Amino acid sequence: MSIESAKAYMQRMREDPDFRKRVNQCEDPDANWTFLRESGFDFDIDEFKLAQKEVYELHGTDELPKN
C-alpha cells in the first residue's frame, strides 16, 4: 500500500470521468475498495488522508494540478 497510489487515484478521479462514474456507482464501501484494488490501486484510508494532506500542503488545495 502506498501514499503514491492514493495520489494516483486522486489524479485519475479528477481526470477520468468514466472512472469517476464507475467509482461513484459502487453500492457500498466494500464494493468501492474492491473496484479500486481491481483497478490497480493499493492504499488504505489512512494513506488516502495522508495523500490529501500532502497535496493540500504542496498546492493549497486537495486537487492535484492538471498535467
Distance between the termini: 24 Å
| Order of SSEs | HHHH
Count of individual helical segments:
4
Number of domains: 1
Helix content: 55-70%
Estimated radius of gyration:
12 Å
Largest sheet geometry: none
The tally of strands reads: 0
Question: Which structural category fits the helices and strands?
Answer: mainly alpha
Pfam families: Nif11
Domain Nif11: 1-48
Protein name: Nif11-like leader peptide family natural product
InterPro entries: CHP03798_Ocin, Nif11
How would you describe the overall organization of this protein?
The protein is an all-alpha fold. It has one domain (3-59). Helices cover 69% and strands 0% of the residues. The protein is built from four helices and no strands. The chain has helices at residues 3-15, 17-24, 29-38, 45-59. Helix 1 (3-15) crosses helix 2 (17-24) and helix 1 (3-15) crosses helix 4. It is globular, with a radius of gyration of 12 Å. The protein starts with a helix and ends in an 8-residue tail after the last helix.
What is the gist of this entry?
With 67 residues, this protein is mainly α. Helices cover 69% and strands 0% of the residues.
Which structural traits does this protein have?
single chain; 67 residues
Secondary structure topology:
Elements: H1 3-15, H2 17-24, H3 29-38, H4 45-59
Helix pairs in contact: 1-2, 1-4
